[in-house]
Specification:
The protein is of the alpha/beta class and 118 residues long. It is 19% helix and 25% strand. The protein has helices at 39-45, 73-87, and strands at 3-9, 12-19, 24-28, 50-54, 95-98. The chain has a five-stranded mixed sheet, with helices on both faces. Strand 1 and strand 2 form a beta hairpin. The longest helix is centred in the last third of the chain and has 15 residues, at 73-87. The relative contact order is 0.21.
Length: 118
Amino acid sequence: MLVDNYANVNGVCLHYVGTGTGPLILFLHGFPEFWYAWKNQLTDFGSDHHAVALDMRGFNLSDKPTDVAQYRLDILVEDIRAFAAHLSPTKNSSSSVTTGVASWPGPSPFPTRTRSRN
C-alpha cells in the first residue's frame, strides 16, 4: 500500500509517497513530473526495500519557494541528502537514488550515505 507523508528538511516541507521496508531506495522525478511517475516502481521495489518517491522542491504537494535562487542545484542536492537522512538517520544505513538531474551530483558528495544498484 502506498502511503503519503511529509518531511521538513533543508527549510522546506517535502511531500513523498512510500511503501515497504528494508534498505531505502529513492525515486526522483524530472521536469515536469512528480512522485506519481514512479507509482509502479514503488510497488515492485517495495517488496524488499523502503521505496520512496519524492515530490521535489517546487513540485506538486511540496513547498514552492518563490525565490528562484532556492532552486540552485546545490540546494536541490542538499534537499535529497537531508531527506534521505530524515528517512534513514543512522550513519551506517545506505540508500540508492534513482534518476532525476538533481541526483546526478548527489552520490559523490555523500559517498558514505549512498550505494550503487549495479
